[in-house]
Specification:
Elements: E1 2-3, H1 6-26, E2 32-38, H2 42-58, E3 61-67, H3 73-85, E4 91-94, H4 104-110, H5 122-129, H6 138-149, E5 158-162, H7 169-178, E6 182-186, H8 193-197, E7 202-205, E8 223-226, E9 230-231, E10 237-238, H9 243-246, E11 252-253, H10 261-277
Parallel strand pairs: 1-11, 2-3, 2-4, 5-6, 5-7, 7-8, 8-11
Antiparallel strand pairs: 9-10
Helix pairs in contact: 1-10, 2-10, 6-7, 6-10
Bound molecules: guanine.
């Protein structure tokens, strides 16, 4: 069984980006990411802090906007408008979830697709589905990078994605399709789930249920990618996959923590660097 080491692979990517950022600096180009957080959700503060740290390591300038919980939708939209027009800013990220008085869809749509490093804008999502250039949601992009850098072929393989969220499941299936996988999406209404997941050469699990996937769901020799992250009753982290139960059945698997998690930030950083290296053209 091969353990897919997301921590090592994400470090490798961050080092490559650090080099690219240094080269860009020599050409007088500075990469800059604006991160907006509304309120003080503790989990969001940890994620935002990690993004800042990654920027510092790579040499990306980061602008942090820590807005009060009672910030109005109009105020937030005005800030996004200002950042859209600021030529020094290459990427804009609004940390989710937002307080309930702010319409998330409206905020996502307000970010210029050319600075949408999260890949959540409908234009970015549309570009992915019709095979055009655009930013791709960081977690599924990270899964593809993990597979490629672990020399796991996708072309022609039976790929099963468990979960259909806009942030992971749907873009994940589009990306696997783009790599010429044969893709099936499963979800809570799928009948005979085990029968479907057992067909998978590559099984990507993003359903948000701790240790849901046991060996009865997995084909012998499959690659299993676990996107879930939970804290169990002993405060230990675990994924959507029961790692100990499936580890002797699979040929490769991501651990939790240290699998998909670290890749999300690495891919966000990659999107920031690419936003300056190439002009995203949506026309
Ligand atoms: N909240 C949890 N994950 C994410 C993410 O990837 N991007 C943003 N903007 N907010 C999040």
């Amino acid at each position: 069984m091969k353990l897919i080491d997301g921590k090592a692979i994400s470090s490798e990517i961050k080092d490559e980006l650090k080099y690219r950022v240094a080269q860009l600096k020599k050409e007088g180009k500075e990469v800059c990411l604006a991160v907006i957080q509304v309120g003080q959700d503790p989990a969001s503060s940890v994620y935002v802090g990690n993004k800042k740290k990654a920027c510092e390591y790579i040499g990306i300038n980061s602008l942090a906007y820590e807005l009060k919980e009672d910030t109005t939708e109009v105020e937030l939209l005005q800030l996004i408008d200002k950042l859209n027009k600021d030529n020094k800013v290459n990427g804009i990220l609004v940390q989710l979830p937002l307080p309930s008085h702010i319409n998330e869809d409206k905020v996502i749509k307000a970010i210029s697709p050319s600075k949408d490093v999260d890949g959540f804008h409908p234009m970015s999502v549309g570009a992915l589905s019709i095979g055009k250039q655009g930013f791709v949601s960081c977690t599924p992009a990270g899964v593809i990078e993990l597979l490629k850098r672990s020399n796991i072929d996708i072309e022609g393989k039976e790929c099963v994605v468990l979960g259909r969220s806009n942030i992971v499941g749907k873009p994940m299936s589009m990306l696997l399709l783009r790599e010429n996988g044969t893709v099936t999406i499963c979800h809570s209404r799928t009948s005979d789930l085990k029968e479907v997941t057992k067909r998978a050469d590559i099984l990507v699990v993003a359903i948000g249920k701790p240790k849901f996937i046991t060996k009865e769901y997995v084909k012998e020799g499959a690659t299993v990618i676990d996107v879930g992250i939970h804290r169990n009753e002993n405060n230990k982290l675990c994924g959507d996959v029961d790692f100990d139960d499936v580890k002797d059945v699979v040929s490769a698997i991501t651990p939790v923590p240290g699998g998909v998690g670290p890749m999300t930030i690495a891919m966000l950083m990659k999107n920031c660097v690419e936003s300056i290296e190439r002009d995203i053209d949506f026309c």
